[in-house]
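Progress against Task 2.4 (sequence-to-structure conversion) is shown through the following example record, which the project officer requested during the mid-term review.
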Amino acid sequence: MKARKTEPVPVRLTPEETALVRSLVLYEDADILALNKPSGLSSQGGRGQANTLDELLWAFARPGKARPRLIHRLDRDTSGVILTAKTKPAAGFLGKAMMARRFLKTYRAIVTPGAPVPPKGVIEAPLRREELGREAHMRVCAPDHPDAETARTRYRTLAQAPGAALLEADPETGRMHQIRVHLASLGRPIAGDARYGGALVVGGHPAPRLMLHAAALTFPHPGGGEMRLQAPIPDDMAALLAALKLA
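Structure tokens generated for the chain above:
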């Protein structure tokens, strides 16, 4: 007998949690809901007492209906555009479009100790997952490694100053921690990224978290046509850019 798929149990949110997630809305229509995720909020599967973004989406569920579905994820400490689907048909359409690599994701990253050489290019370096205790890391590996996953990232330098640079990165594949590991493999780790060797202080200024922001997302809309959504640089990253004279 085929097992019935159980629906997730709605999560009770506090008024503060509801107000928080509603304040993150970038765009909404009948098919999609896009949010500007703050750094420090897990997309899914977070540890501890705080609700994840996936759980906070219950704030948008109509009575007796499911919450919007996440189409992709961002690392907990990465900020920026994240897309959800409000209906099953929209979720199916967007899921297929993402699998067909019809999503264009554009990130901003502050790296040290300066601009990469060359200042723009394509990183093609396979990655493999490595479990270290309860934490998962990604490592650059040989193409013939049994766990190798192809990974490709385009990057270009937008601004540079002594000891730091602002990069734009467009991942053409969606591996975990891909941009972080690829930039670190160039000797230009992202500021605040302690896991992959990023500086915690840049030019005398603290980098309190991973300085990686999902600035824009371009994708085919379920209703037809192409849509581009953008999220402004968060205040903490904008302050560091200004202090480093990269803005």
